[in-house]
Amino acid sequence: MNGENPYEPPRVTTGNHEAPDAIFGEYHLTKRNVSAAESHFLVLSRPGLLLFVSFICIAIAIGLVVVVSRVADRFVGITLVVGMLVSAGIYLLSIYPTRKRVRQAMRAYGLLHAVHYQLVVDQTTTRVTAGTDTWVWQNDRIKVHSFSGGLLLRPETDVFLLLPKHGHFNVANFRELRNVLQTRLTATLPYAHAIRG
């Protein structure tokens, strides 16, 4: 044993050149993590469109049920299933262009699953190292969103950074991490592309 408590998560090691109050983190993302975060991000990206599409889908389903129930009651169950399938198809078609754009942007930055991530958030910048690439964003251009899988940082229109709950950060717990990041990441300016760190 090296004197460390085996029941504590591993300590995040950092260089001495960082600010003493910076937030540090290391983590890996699974495909499931990224998929859940992407779904949440797509809803955040196009809330108005998705609300409109939802109303259209509901109207189509109700219209189908009303029409079929007047003709033959025995087909109402089948009509409900068809209505749900049509609604799902319309929803997927409506988010397809946004999903494609987001995936292209994420690939361009190397922000993928099965990659080792390192995060440093000081008072003015957020730096993310994904594999061999390092990117830096200004804190006043990043939005923070909570969801069931952790935190989503949105530094650009089509880019998100997922901070999973299972990551190793130099704060006491995930709630403290969320509170500190929501204080530092203010998003008072428009999005801007990252610079290579």
User: Helix amount, in percent?
Assistant: 40-55%
Distance between the terminal alpha carbons, to the nearest Å?
A: 36 Å
Which percent range describes the beta-strand content?
15-25%
The sequence of SSEs as H and E is EHHHEEEEEEEHE
- Major sheet: 6 strands, antiparallel
What's the pLDDT, averaged over the residues?
Answer: 82
Radius of gyration: 22 Å
**3D shape:** elongated
- Low-confidence region ranges: 4-17
Overall domain count = 2
Which oligomeric state applies? single chain
Q: How would you write the strand order of the largest sheet? A: 8-1-2-3-4-9
Question: How many DSSP H or I helices?
Answer: 4
* Structural classification: alpha+beta
Number of strands: 9
Describe this structure as you would to a colleague.
By secondary structure, the chain is an alpha+beta fold. The chain folds into 2 domains: 23-30 and 113-196; 42-106, no CATH class. Helix content is 43%, strand content 23%. It contains 4 helices and 9 strands. Strands 8-1-2-3-4-9 form a 6-stranded antiparallel β-sheet, covered by helices on one side. The protein has a 3-stranded antiparallel β-sheet with strand order 5-6-7, with helices on both faces. It is elongated.
Write a compact overview of the structure shown.
The chain has helices at 31-45, 47-71, 76-109, 174-184, and strands at 23-28, 116-121, 125-130, 133-138, 143-147, 150-156, 159-164, 168-169, 195-196.
